[in-house]
Design brief:
Layout: H1 3-6, H2 10-17, E1 21-24, E2 27-37, E3 65-70, E4 74-81, E5 88-99, H3 101-108, H4 113-116, H5 120-127, E6 143-146, E7 154-157, E8 171-174
Antiparallel strand pairs: 1-2, 1-6, 2-5, 2-8, 3-4, 4-5, 7-8
Length: 186
């Protein structure tokens, strides 16, 4: 996927990422769940378009990685969208593992495939994503993103684990996928 794909409004990009393929150093699979964040969104790290050391990658042009540590424990991978004037990103919450399952298990331990990448922290651990990947362009190694090859049935709902702007329906997922981090409300 070219940078131009990401240089569009985050709420257009996010649902179109469901069904796309994400690989990091050849390990990955099909994206099944994402969440959108925009600077007008109180839950965004860039709320009010405030730049910090932590969120600096969000201020790059769409098509870069924004990687941060959540609760000081888990790495989280976001795909920066829009322009360098609008700090927006899509958090990759879950994917269906397709390639490199041995590497994922070496990093995460032996478990059911559906749990390897179900949640942003698990996903980053399985793919080997750390803070070293922050601000890297998505259009070249170690990243490989492939456009989706099918029109998925989308599930839409509120984002997970937020206290601010928790009601916004900015979580998108592959309806019925067993690889989601959490099922969507019926």
């Amino acid at each position: 996927m070219k940078a131009a794909f990401f240089q569009r409004p985050v709420l257009e990009v996010a649902p179109e990422l469901v069904g796309a393929e994400l690989y990091v150093d050849g390990v990955g699979g099909v994206i099944v769940e994402v969440e959108a964040y925009h600077p007008d969104d109180r839950a965004s790290h860039a709320f009010g378009n405030r730049r910090t050391k932590r969120n600096g990658a969000m201020f790059l042009a769409g098509g870069h990685a924004y990687v941060y540590r959540s609760y000081g424990i888990h790495w989280c991978l976001n795909l920066v969208c829009e322009s360098d004037e609008v700090a927006a990103a899509v958090l990759v919450r879950a994917l269906e593992p397709r390639r490199g399952l041995e590497a994922m298990r070496a990093r995460r331990g032996s478990m059911a495939d559906r749990l390897l990448c179900a949640g942003p922290g698990r996903l980053c651990q399985a793919l080997g994503v750390t803070g070293e990947y922050d601000a890297l362009p998505l259009g070249r190694p170690p990243f490989e993103l492939r456009a989706r090859q099918f029109e998925p049935e989308l599930a839409v709902g509120p984002r997970i684990g937020l206290t601010k702007a928790a009601d916004r329906p900015w979580r998108f997922g592959l309806a019925g996928s067993p690889y989601l981090s959490r099922a969507f409300a019926a």
